[in-house]
Design goal:
The chain has 108 residues and is mainly α. The protein has helices spanning 15-27, 32-49, 58-69, 76-83.
């Protein structure tokens, strides 16, 4: 059973933003409301994931502190991944995912 939708969110856009959103919704065969709601929920979930608090006991804190204290090392698979060209439509700036990730390092 679907949840009842009884709350509203109103927003103002420029004509250009309106046109862009309507074209994208149409391309995905969705209503504007469905398209905007899905995009907003994805963005909200991502923003909230960035603000999660992690609670650690003494052992967990010790393990995290030790891991962060170790020297970083390159992970060849990640270096290769970040040097690959981004999928069409997802690239930023130079068009490669490696633009800001030439020295990919990770704590392991």
């Amino acid at each position: 059973m679907a949840s009842r939708k009884d709350a509203r969110i109103n927003l103002r856009t420029t004509r250009e933003q309106d046109t862009l959103i309507r074209r994208a919704a149409d391309a995905q065969r969705k209503s504007v409301s469905e398209f905007v709601l899905e995009a907003a929920c994805r963005s909200a979930e991502s923003a909230l994931l960035d603000t999660k608090t992690i609670l650690l006991d003494k052992q967990g804190w010790k393990q995290l502190s030790e891991a962060l204290g170790r020297d970083a090392r390159e992970v060849p698979e990640l270096v290769k991944l970040f040097r690959e060209k981004a999928p069409q439509g997802l690239s930023r700036g130079s068009g490669t995912a490696s633009a800001n990730a030439l020295a990919v390092r990770a704590w392991i």
